[in-house]
Write a structure and sequence with these properties.
It is a single chain. The protein folds into 2 domains: 208 residues, Isopropylmalate Dehydrogenase (3-Layer(aba) Sandwich), CATH 3.40.718.10; 136 residues, Isopropylmalate Dehydrogenase (3-Layer(aba) Sandwich), CATH 3.40.718.10. Helices cover 39% and strands 18% of the residues. It is built from 13 helices and 12 strands. It is of the alpha/beta class. α9 runs parallel beside α10 and α11 runs antiparallel to α12. Strands 2-1-3-12-11-4-5-10-8-9 form a 10-stranded mixed β-sheet, sandwiched between helices. The longest helix is centred in the first third of the chain and has 19 residues. The chain is globular. Bound molecules: 3-isopropylmalic acid and manganese (II) ion. 3-isopropylmalic acid binds next to α5.
Length: 372
């Protein structure tokens, strides 16, 4: 398969983790006889610095004319600490989501066996968890009217949903559930919010088209508790934008580290793949950031194009790395492996290189690659 992939590394640890995902994809192309062409472009704070805009036209045009976008992270403390800033890095991501028509964000929540001890949750609780989050990405409180009065003392954010927006994602969630354990859990706040009541009505109607799938409803406050206390009950979690944002980060705890969580954002004609973790500015440039979420996002990219064997190889590589403890410090505080070494291990595994045993905690130190 020929794929043209836009690489938007962004800010913070984005560039270093995306580099490892590209290494994994390049190794996959070699082994499975594909041609993947990568083209890099600016986004976020890095783009504001160079062009004054978080999403320069050149970047947008590239993304509109590629098969997929591989995204790193976006944001910078400089803007976080300045509530007055009119131009913010995150706007680049919103503009991109809008321009590419990305309306659903998916995250698989399934802990790797080797990481069951890394989660602060008890092993018995998380073992066997396997659910998919379907977060609506194009509407809700993120996108509608925002106001602040002249005195700067009263602010509003409008939360709006249309039936059409809900229908689109609901069908996808039910179709996904049909291929899994056939349960959709709609998470809302229908006891308080009008938009949630619209979600319930529309999703209930959609469920009639999928009689083999069970639909249940949870209020978001209860869902937050249930996901942590009894995560195994979930199969497909369907929810609106802001609830999905919060529940996604929370669910990452089940996977052992937010550094493990990959995501795909899909529209009718475009798709973007990104790790769930943010820019992690404290780790930038130190070769300590966990690259697995970015590498696994590359796995979701392969899956999206129907390259299942290739995606499985990436999963197997990550599983092997975890089993051999070739992981970054967030997963093993004593680890001497850095971002680059973990990325080297993954691409070598995909390439079936036989020097994997050289990856051994004793002959590596952070900052030094073992590949010569
Ligand atoms: C995410 C992120 C973004 C969001 C931020 C960076 C604006 O947290 O992709 O989940 O809230 O959507
Ligand atoms: Mn988020």
């Amino acid at each position: 398969m020929n794929l043209k992939i836009a690489v938007l590394a962004g800010d913070g640890i984005g560039p270093e983790v995306v580099l490892q995902a590209m290494k994994a994809l390049k190794a996959t192309a070699v082994m499975f006889d594909h041609e993947f062409i990568f083209e890099e472009a600016l986004v976020g704070a890095a783009a504001i610095e160079k062009t004054g805009k978080p999403l320069p036209e050149q970047t947008l045009n590239l993304c509109l004319n590629t098969d997929a976008v591989l995204f790193g992270a976006i944001g910078d403390l400089k803007y976080d600490n300045d509530p007055e800033a009119k131009i913010r890095p995150e706007q680049g991501l919103f503009q991109l989501r809008k321009a590419l028509g990305l309306f659903v964000n998916n995250k698989p929540i399934k802990p790797y066996d080797g990481l069951l001890e890394s989660s602060p949750l008890k092993k018995e609780i998380i073992e066997g968890t396997d659910f998919l989050i379907y977060r609506e990405l194009s509407g809700g409180i993120y996108f509608d009217e925002k106001t602040i009065n002249d005195e700067g003392t009263i602010a509003t954010d409008l939360c709006k949903y249309t039936e059409e927006q809900i229908l689109k994602i609901a069908h996808l969630a039910f179709q996904a559930a049909q291929k899994r354990r056939k349960i959709v859990s709609l998470i809302d706040k229908a006891n308080v919010l009008e938009t949630s009541r619209l979600w319930r009505k529309v999703v209930t109607t959609v469920s009639k088209d999928y009689p083999d799938v069970e639909l249940n409803y949870l209020y978001v406050d209860n869902a937050a508790k249930q996901i942590i206390a009894k995560p195994k009950q979930f199969d497909v979690v369907l929810t609106e934008n802001l609830f999905g944002d919060i529940l996604s980060d929370m669910s990452s705890i089940i996977t052992g580290s937010i550094g493990m969580l990959a995501s795909s954002s899909i529209g009718d004609t475009h798709a973007l793949f990104e790790p769930v973790h943010g820019t992690f500015p404290q780790a930038k440039g130190k070769n300590i950031a966990n690259p697995f979420a970015s590498i696994l996002s590359a796995g979701l990219l392969l899956e999206y194009f129907g390259l299942h064997k290739e995606a499985k190889k990436i999963h197997d590589a990550v599983e092997k790395a975890i089993a051999l403890k070739v992981v970054t410090m967030d997963l093993n505080p004593e680890s001497k492996f850095g971002t680059n070494e973990v990325g080297d291990f993954i691409s070598n595994f995909i390439l079936d290189k036989d020097d994997l045993l050289y990856f051994n905690n004793d002959n590596v130190s952070i900052g030094q690659s073992t590949i010569v």
